[in-house]
Amino acid sequence: MKSATRFFAAVALVCATPAVSETMREAVLRRTALENGMRPFEETWPEFEPEKAAVGKLLFESELLSLTRNVSCRNCHLDEFGSADGLPLGHGAGGVGKGIERMKSPAGVLSRNALALWGRGGVGFDVFFWDGRVEASSGDVRSQFGTMAPSDDPLVVTVHLPPVEFREMIGESDATEWLRQGEVGAATRVHAEIARRIRETPEIAVPLAVASELEVGNLTYLQIAEAISAFIRSEFRLRETKFHRFVFQSEPLTDQELAGGLLFYGRGQCTACHSGAYFSDLKFHAIPFAQFGFGFNGFGIDYGRYNFTQDPQDQYAFRTPPLYNVTKTAPYSHSGVESDLGAAIRAHVDPLAAIDTSGLSALDRTEVYQKIARWSLEPSYAVELSDIEIAELVAFLTSLEFDPEPTR
Ligand code: HEC
Ligand code: HEC
Q1: Is the minimum distance from the CB of 32 to ligand 2 under 6 angstroms?
Q2: 108 within ligand 1 shell (Cβ under 6 A)
Q3: N or C: which end of the chain has fewer CB within 10 A?
Q4: 168 lines ligand 1 (CB under 6 A)
Q5: Number of domains forming the structure of the chain
Q6: Nearest atom in ligand 1 to 71's CA
Q7: CA 332, 337, 340, 346 torsion: positive or negative?
Q8: Could you tell me if the CB of 70 is within 6 A of ligand 2?
């Protein structure tokens, strides 16, 4: 009898002392985070050559990479917007200024939201763009280059694409009309012209030649892309976040962050897709976000992954976005339709809350039904989240922020 009383007293003590039950919640969060792929940030660091990274920075910031000489990679991947551009849709060739300022200039407007670069090309990160049109998840690089891929490094292949995209880095004018004619080798000609310019720019060409162990005269776009890839791997490596310190060094989270973390890995089912070292399974899923702008397929439609596989299962599916620094990269979704992080999460679980179908044409409404039908196949379908819980998830996502180290 005496020992039973002591047992009940002990249970009462556990329930009454927040510090103890808190620790149990913390232990659950640590365990599930590790089970779902959380890793020390250094384990994601890829190898790169520092000399190439240093010259890659010059190339990343050079307008010589734009055929019409009016945009650099940096114009859309800015530090102040978490390496994206702060706009719903990318604004390329001809644009002036940063953030919403840029919307006032006569820029070429893209059909997709600019992606951040954190962790890209890190260990195991081998699926690129919203629709994965460059990927090496099966070992071989698959891209629109087919068997002519310029490299077996998928990031190097990815870096071949921005300079040959109209509106992104090529302005539309009579002088660039030849590119539109679907001429065989058009992309090769653009790459050759950019390489020629770089060879004629000693402050870039000389260090690039040294880093690449080639003569300046032999530099091609491949060495340019390799240097930019080294820069991306160095500059945008994952760094330590509050959540790393929580998981690996027992630093506490706030109550709200902790609650959000438990939802993220628990009932919210976010890790059905946002799993692994980058908070992305690097696979393709359909979340019925509303569509902003003209769309990749035109007239407000973007079929996402389907464009490359023609598999009906891939309709409206996009690569799960990684979530490091996601608090800094508003607006959200492949078309930037969600200006707010909470609304982006809400759209996952209650898409019609944000889409007023009564104002749509019958055709557009059908489009919404199709998206929702595709979404209903996803594991997270119909999870219920209150406003308080969404605020907790947002608080959890702030624990995934970090600042890059200042570039040497
Ligand atoms: C006009 C704005 C713009 C410019 C200029 C630009 N980008 Fe981007 N970048 C984007 C957009 C938009 C996307 C997403 C496109 C998509 O997925 O369809 C993107 C995606 C990427 C990705 C893929 C990231 C991921 O998560 O898979 C990389 C890498 C990248 N850009 C690097 C570069 C480099 C290197 C340059 C310069 C050679 C450059 N970008 C120039 C807007 C831009
Ligand atoms: C079924 C897979 C899946 C699940 C489950 C899921 N997501 Fe997503 N998430 C995605 C995909 C795919 C996108 C991008 C879709 C698009 O843009 O069309 C996305 C987009 C996001 C974005 C916007 C990111 C950006 O850069 O634009 C955030 C934030 C986000 N998810 C958080 C969450 C949270 C929090 C949960 C849990 C409540 C969750 N997701 C559950 C697949 C998923």
Answers
A1: no
A2: no
A3: N
A4: yes
A5: 2
A6: 5
A7: negative
A8: no
Indicate the SS3 state at residue 224.
helix
Residue 3 placed within a domain:
no
Which atom of ligand 2 is closest in space to residue 349's alpha carbon? Answer: 38
pLDDT at residue 92, as a whole number: 87
Handedness of CA 298, 291, 375, 137 (dihedral sign): positive
pTM here?
0.93
Residue identifier of the C-alpha nearest atom 11 of ligand 1: 114
The 10s digit of each residue's pLDDT in 180-192 is 776 668 899 999 9
Average pLDDT, the chain: 90
Q: Find the range with the poorest average confidence among 66-75, 77-86, 377-386.
A: 377-386
> Quick one: tokens of 217?
């005269």
Pocket test for ligand 1, best of 69, 129, 135, 155 (most atoms within 8 A of CB): 129
User: Does residue 273 sit within a domain?
Assistant: yes
Prior bond to 379 cis, omega within 30? no
Supply 362's token pair. Answer: 């019958």
Structural domain for 189, as ranges: 50-235
Residue-wise pLDDT tens digits, 118-161? 999 999 999 999 999 999 998 899 998 888 899 999 999 999 99
The Cβ of residue 138 has, within 10 Å, a number of other Cβ atoms equal to 8
